[in-house]
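The records we work with from here on pair a chain with its fold. Taken together, the tokens spell out the fold as the letters spell out the chain. The record below shows the convention in full.
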Amino acid sequence: LVVHVGPNALLLCAGTSLLLWPRYGLVLMGLTLVLCQGLEVDRHLESHRQLQGWEQIEADNPAEREQDYSRQRARRILATETELQYLGWSRFGQVRVLATDKSRYLVLYNLKRQYDVRAFEVGEHSLDEVDTSEVSGHWRLRDTFYRLFAADQKLIIIGVGSGRGSSHLNFEPTSTVTLVERDPAAARYFAEVNPAINDHLFSQVHFEVADGRHVVETSGGSLDAIVIESARYQPPHSMLPASSPFYLFTREAIATYLEKLNEDGILAIEFTRTIDGAKNALVPAQVLDSLQALGAPYTLYNTEPRESILLLASPPGGNLERWTDRMDTMADQQGVRR
């Protein structure tokens, strides 16, 4: 009921029905739920939430504001005129999409900014004609790294959100590429409600709405690459424990990822918002500790400002240089360094 009607409307219907007609309140509640769904009552109620004030409070500390890239960006976006485009619920909570007057969409999970995206075309991967100083570090890392893949390789990309990262591939992805998004409400928006944003990408690839670790564990055959996008510490209100970084990046999880790769395969993990505070060093440290214990070769790439770090790792005895040699030849032009 929460997914289809929304919790605000559900509480309103239940309370009103039991107050007006206590004896037959459950019958009346069923009728009002149908009415509330048709009138989008939950959406109208949520539209009154003051997100600008909420973000302002989060960034009131001047010292924190200087180092917190994500909150600065959210404040800039929310300072523009925004319009609620989508409100969805799932077992993970609420997803809302706000459109801005700059043709960008801000995506919030449980009222916490996750990412913003503009409409893009599949294959729109090149930053060659863009001033890289105006492009954030994680996009420069992706633009460099994603060019290494070929159309005949079997890839799993986890945490894709809108699918924007996949636009950096230098080929149009098909069913050999598996894209994974954990939140059904976010997936529903980009796959069904407004698929034009990502050029109908999710209908071209093998798209799974599931936990990324489960998808890897149940995949058949060996993989050429496992990519985890936007890995970072998440507070409890953003995710359930079963999908938190502590679950995706345990030593057992890292061992599984390496076992699923072929001998020339690559595990790539993009750690984002690493300048947002000390807490975001927790997940990278946990992964590095696991790789060292497993005897897996790895290396790191970053940009300035060091808002993102890209980790590349191969299975023990694997050919990491096969990837890093090609990565190094393209890194300098994007301001990426090892």
